[in-house]
Records
---
Amino acid sequence: MFSKDAIKLYVLGLSLLGLTAFVFFRENTTDWRDYQAEFRDFVSEKFGPERAEQIPSGVQQIWVKDLDRVDRCVTCHQATEWKGLETAPNPYRTHPKEILEKHPLTAYGCTSCHGGQGFSTTLPDAHGNVEHWDEPVLGQEVSEAYLIKNSKALMEMNCNACHRYDRETKGMDYINTAKNLVEQKDCRACHTINGRGGIIGPDLTFEGEKPTEQFDYGRLTGRHAVFAWQVAHFQNPKMVSPDSIMPNFGFSSQDAQALALLVMSWRKEPIPASYISGVQLRDVPTPEEIAREKEMLEGEGAFFVQNKCFVCHSVSSLGVNSAAKIGPDLSDAVVDVQNRFGRTLDDFLMDPTGTMSVVLATQIPLTTEQRHQAIALLKVAYQRKLEQQIKSASPSPTPAGK
Amino acid sequence: MATEEISETKTSLLGTLREKLAFKATWEKLTWTWKPETKREAGDAIVRNFILHWFPAKVSLESLSWGYSFWLGTISAVLFLILTITGGILMFLYVPSVERAYLSVKDLEFSTSYGWFLRGLHRISAHLMVAVVFLHMVRVFLTGAFKNGRKAVGQNRPLNWIVGVVLLLITLLLSFTGYLLPWDQLAYWAITVGTNIASSAPVFGDPTRFILLGGTTIEQATLIRFYVLHCFLLPLATFALVSYHMWRVRKDGGLACTEKRYEEAKKQEHPAIASKTYSLLGITGGSAVDVQNVMIDDEKDKVPSSPYLTVRLAVVTLATLLISILLTLLVRAPLEEAANPAVTPNPAKAPWYFLWLQELVTITTFTVGGFTINGALIGGIILPGVLVVAAVLWPYFDKSPVSSIGRWFPKERQWQNRIFLIIVAAILVLTFIGTYMRGPFWEIYMPWQEWEQTPRRF
């Protein structure tokens, strides 16, 4: 009994050793290692072994925190930002440069435009044409399935996530066509899009968010896919949903595909505002605010603004408005000074007492000439004030509460 | 017999090979820190060792046999050990937050070194553990091993059976709480179905679901609750109860199959020992009181635990590990789309070991004249509740003779075994139907019938 058990133990032990070796083998012979080795050979041949040595090995990734994306595509597509491999075979080809200038990899990653499964490090999973992953790489394979000539057209759907509010975007021909059609055919007559439009048809603002299960594929031949449904629906609405009252616009198949891409791009994905094309991240002043600022800087009271008097004093009759209003309004300084200090304005400003003596000695050192200028302007201000008082006494008083 | 076995070892194939290779001393230094030379030393080896001390110094041959227990309890314990180790490592890699849980599992699958292996092994071992613990219970019932015999003082096998039933329930809970953690569609909706069944209990249903979920919907509060239960409280409870379970096996006189030998020995006539007895009336001839005690010859029927039990234990451990790893390599652990409360998969299924309940719910839901009876209460709460209570109470109503203990399919227990097997078969059939034959809209699909295409975006 014991020796039989001992033999079992040895057999099991050896089998386990074998299995452990197999697990080790499987972990260390992944496809991406082959691609990296091949790329190193490729570079070594083309640019010499020194360049090849600098190529990083191991899983590579681009982490875009703002978009919550991790894209490991660069593990195999290592030449993305290289120079001189523009015509090399994939996955060793340089990415077209122009688009990357405005959309750097570090800020956008790969999958936000191309689709696919960024986490993945195996080809079928990464390219995303697998079960339980609904964002395949929008390239040749899918384009061929739908007989779309331009294999980059489908990708425009992803571009439009950020370019949604553009009227027209350079290089996005399909989406531009579709946006044009939306205006031409006046889709908003029936549908609300981005908060604007009719209520006869369903709101399309987040049409791209509708789960795949919510479409009726019963009358569709071929693959059960939202894109196929949308294209068929644009070409003949009653064919896919008999109860629909949407008219048949007789769209060409290319137009229908473009429109399908457009509505599918209308998703709820959380994108930081800084990524959305056309959004201004600035505190823009209103026209009134601009006019008021201009009056203060260039109007009759500009002297008081330029010399910082307005920090404490308003000169309301000259349109100078102090935010702090620590000191009295200088519009009636001519009489006010007399009342407060028993001296004339000219006298006081040439030789001030109290707070003003400190301020003029330390904060606002005015020359004698400037003091004369101030006195002259304050006299004008008083003049204006009297004029305004006469005006307001006439039958059109300012409404109460203003 | 035992002596023969030991001498057999010495002349075994590998033994001779080692001797012939003439590095026996070195080999033994490498493989044994200390090799017992006598039976007494072998016994000491067990008693002195911290890990091995829960075994008796000597163990009967029938307890060691493959065919009686199938070592199902040991296999469960080994699986629990695998789960503890893989789970411990996974805790370093998994983030129990709604935002990150799914992504961290994706990372395990694709970028963490051996992450796919750890997760796969943990998952397979968990499924196996549910199955093996259930089979262990089936074995104990069929062999009547929950019955007290006459062998040891202070036997309480029914209590240990109840501990076992509780351990089965904890195993199910462990698996159920782990099911949610990947936070994918499979996880989310399985827990939705499971907790909805729980909520149909009268009075306590909704509060139970509320406490379990930490709210009314499956959200962050649920995830962290399930995580703490899964990684801390339930394993702790399992560890404590398994320790008690093992200790009770020793206290109850070992495996129930050893009761048989006691009965057999008792049947043999023992000549009464003639002696003088002091009675109240003075000295009389006759036999002394209580001398008919059964003597079982330990030397004849038992072998030292070291190496017989320890080696077999090692065989079981390695075999369990081997099968788990093999299955891990053959079956890829699924990871569906990230959990999405807005999209219900069709069909939405509970974890496989609760699918018999989901089937029962379906069967007990019917409409009588526009009045629908919701099966969740009958099929989901009352029936399984009755089964658990029956399981707990069964040993106390089992009046079969002691001679039926520790034997497979004894005649005396054939009726209760038949009833039990019918229930087991029903559970298995319902589980099979729920797992393999329920398609979209919970319609019956034959395994060879194709389901409707799953719709995709492109």
---
Amino acid sequence: MLRLETRTAPARWLSFAVPVFAALLALLLAAIPLLSAGVSPLQAYRVMLSGAFGSQFAATEVVARATPLILTGLAAAVAFRARLFNIGAEGQLYAGALAAVAVGSGLIDGPAVLMIPLVCLAGALAGAALMLGPTLMKVKLGADEVVTTLLLNFVVALFVQMMIEGPMKDPMSMGWPQSEPILSSAVLPNLIERTRVHAGLIIAVGAALLAEIVMRRTVLGFRIRAVGHNPAAARFAGMSVTRTMLVVGALSGALAGLAGVGEVAGLKGYLTNDLSPGYGYAGIVVAMLAGLSPLGVIASALFVAAVFVGADSMSRALTVSSYIANLIVALSLLSVLLSSVLLRFRLRWEGKPA
Amino acid sequence: MTANPHTPVLELRGISKRFGALQANDDIDLVLGRGEVLALLGENGAGKTTLMNILFGHYAADSGSVWVADRAGVLQPLPSANPAAALQAGIGMVHQHFALADKLSALENITLGTESLWRLSRGDRSARTKLDGLMRRSGLLVDLDSPISRLSVGERQRVEILKALYRDARILVLDEPTAVLTPQESASLFETLRALTADGLSVILISHKLDEILAASDRVAVLRHGRKAGEVSTRESTKAALAQMMVGRSVPSPARTPREPGAPVLELVGVSVESPTVRRRLDDVSLQVRSGEIVGIAGVSGNGQSALADLLSGLLTPKHGSLLLGQKPITRFDPGLFVQSGIGRVPEDRHHEGAVGAMTVAENTVLENLSEPRFQRWGFLRKARIDAHARNAIHDFDIRCPGPHAPIRQLSGGNMQKVILARALDREPQLVLANQPTRGLDVGAVADVHRRLIAARDRGAGVVLVSEDLDEILALADRVTVIFRARLSEAMPAEGLDRQALGLLMAGQAREAA
């Protein structure tokens, strides 16, 4: 009989092995639909790999796509640590982008050293503000934040639609629903010529480093972990669960908001309703793959970005739908959940009792 | 009917069960005779619960077998891991926490599950006749039509026993039956057990209270570390001998020297806390605790102890009345402020409120002192200082753990409690609140906790000891007060205090009436 046994002390190497195992398992499972589409999985993955890392351009494209994923991944990782399940990073991303456009497309102008921080601040504040309601409703009324944050995504999406078709619509857009462009002084500069890698990457990596330090080395990080693991004990010890939750919610929303700023001020230049192909949702997978470790988020964001970029070129080369990328990402989330069982338990074969 | 204690009705033969590295039961043999009360004695973790779960078919034993006498008195093997078969064979159990539906009547609770769902009318009349007979023979009297919510804890326990008897149990297992009873209710339960065993019922009494085992059982089987450490006839045994058999060594009782108390460190004046349930309510409670004394709060569980403890922990704000700490009135009820003003608190439930299981021993030792400059600077943790602090605590309190960086959930209950004590007593608080500080701990750990509380008192702290264990209160407290239905009795000197009188107060009868 196969039995699960609780591990008393999960080995350290396992926490590194689990995400790798989960990623491989996801690729293995995705071979089934590839086979049914009449494509050799080995060839498909070879094409994917060269599509993601085969050229300098491909590799920089992976980095560009990883930039918002790092930030939304951090948004989820920080919040999930406190057991605040923010599923609303997609909405907060759009809120951040909207605020960046509102501030940076002509409301005020100044030198770049002023405009860039201002646009970032506006986006972060908008994302943070969006988390205020769900967090308060959770701690004061017990409303499930999974529901409230998820539903706010649709509210924000419709609000953005309304704004870019109405008050914020660019009169020069020839009827397309898009906002006025970000002023050149507020644009995040490119890091590498002729690629899509922009200064948002520095913000994202810096945020990951900062989050790692906060979590490990500060009183705030200590409180976040304590409240996440056992709110009753945290309250008994004199920590304010409400205040900690509000801070975590604000940080999480701000990180997702920054992802929106990067996309609008670093890449696209103006806001449309297809700014994000679901970076907010993919951030949840990124965070889970990283085991909620802020530094790990960088690696897992690169993996997820590579899957997306690689699947694009695979679908062009082999005429397989690029939705396979979404499938692989979804499968890796399921694999992570499955393999985290292995972190906590040990599988054991047992003979029949005599 | 003749009760012959030598006719076996139940035999456990060579039962072994292993969970991972833990050998929970190791080759245990047990024989229960007809009409006999067998006490199963052992510390927490000795394997009592595992053994009973195997008997009931909740677990499959790794090896060994269970034999139960059939109607003709012939022992038959009980199929392993089959709870329905155990019920069918006449094994009944009364758990420590009752499984009764509050809104249903006693009768409905007793017959629940014994009738086919397809029957149109309930067989109330035949059930009543059968129960009347049972109640008359056993003396287990309850109002069958009263909803459970109106019954006292003792009456609820009677309903649970009747439930088992109604299902024709011939072997009754009682798990810590007196944990929720006053001394008088316990005595009456034991009388009932006598009547039932005279009628042919066999009883297994699980307990770690030596007094009641000596009072109520015919034979005692002692488990230790999963093995049977011994089996004796109750008549030929003594409390000290049983304790030694249970622990494996002799246990010293805490040494207390009389001490003159000093100035008041805590005063409650007419404090009320409102709540729809008694356990979370306080009615006009007044209490004074002086420096250098232990005040014991005795009482049956659920009479307002948690409200009192939460109030003294800073978790509850009173509706009326005032709380003075070292003569200064407290206006803000906040756990963090309470810690800073010098209250050391040991919570009732160490897993729920006392410790963050996933965090390390070191992190748990500073959980409530985190904002002090010695552990943080500009919001950054001073890890080296925290680790040094934890190493000191581990050394001073003799905490057995792999090290300061081990998650605290890996520690045994006793060692986890030592971490919490180390944290609560760290800054020599002038007031110590210990709420059920030894619940679920083994004898050695209990002695450690008691020593720490007495040391705090001797150093001049006032200690509030909330406990449902009367023996613990009488062993430690200088003064005793009883909590009943959210009210506190007058505090009495513990010296020469009469258990019977305390028991009556715990049951809600005034002293004069005794």
